[in-house]
Amino acid sequence: MSEFAPAPVSASGLLLVMAHPAMERSRANRAMAEAAKDLKGVTLVDLYESYPDFAIDVRAEQRRLARHAAVAVQFPVYWYSTPALLKEWFDLVWLHGFAYGNGGTALQGKRMLVACSTGGDEASYRPAGQHRYPITDFLKPLQQTAALCGMQWLEPFVLHASANKSEAALAREAKTYRRRLIPLAGLGASDAAGPLP
């Protein structure tokens, strides 16, 4: 076993890692978090709340990753990438010998979901749009990270035009998001705690 690998455990449930540097001002990511927070089988971690000084507890995060059968990362797209603390989390926690490379098998076989919000609408992420490329192109570094670690990449959940959505539209998106998380948490629809928002 690698020096980084935690003691073997039976993995179950979903680790949902959120990274929004100003969650109090977020409509979309806050609605998504509200839709997920009472689901059985989901461990919700807010990186900016947990590590405001960016001093990530690497061993604790590795143990948390190892305990779960699925991993989801939730964030607003910032300059075509993740917020800084989420990138730091990947850099410090997903180490050689733990997540990949010699002895790095802790994430193999786990499912990975990216859930992100964008300011632009879907049409702006097309060749003729402002951003020129589909949003999936900007998520390819995360997709390749999952592949390198032997994880199963799932179709991303993307909430476009987040700032411009009505409350009703945002509620519909949050409900859809919750439904995507239920099977990752190891639940059937009837097992999920609480009503859909």
Structural commentary:
The chain has helices at residues 28-36, 47-50, 58-67, 84-93, 135-138, 140-148, 167-184; strands at residues 14-18, 42-46, 70-76, 111-117, 152-153, 157-159. With 197 residues, it is of the alpha/beta class. The chain has a single domain, classed as Flavodoxin domain (Rossmann fold, 3-Layer(aba) Sandwich). Strands 1, 2, 3, 4, 5 and 6 form a six-stranded parallel β-sheet that branches. The chain is globular. The termini are far apart. Residues 189-197 have low confidence and may be disordered.
Chain-averaged pLDDT: 91
Largest sheet: 6 strands, parallel
Overall shape: it is: globular
- Named at the architecture level, the CATH assignment is 3-Layer(aba) Sandwich
Q: What is the CATH top level name?
A: Alpha Beta
Tell me the Rg in angstroms: 17 Å
Secondary-structure element order, as H and E?
EHEHHEHEHHEEH
Gap from first CA to last CA: 43 Å
Q: Enter the CATH topology name.
A: Rossmann fold
**From the helix content, strand content and strand pairing, which structural class follows?**
alpha/beta
Q: Uncertain regions: pLDDT < 50 for 5+ in a row?
A: 189-197
CATH homologous superfamily label: Flavodoxin domain
The total count of strands amounts to 6
Number of helices: 7
> What portion of the residues fall into strands of 2 or more residues?
5-15%
Query: How many domains?
Result: 1
Helix content: 25-40%
SSE layout and pairing:
Elements: E1 14-18, H1 28-36, E2 42-46, H2 47-50, H3 58-67, E3 70-76, H4 84-93, E4 111-117, H5 135-138, H6 140-148, E5 152-153, E6 157-159, H7 167-184
Parallel strand pairs: 1-2, 1-3, 3-4, 4-5, 4-6
Helix pairs in contact: 1-7
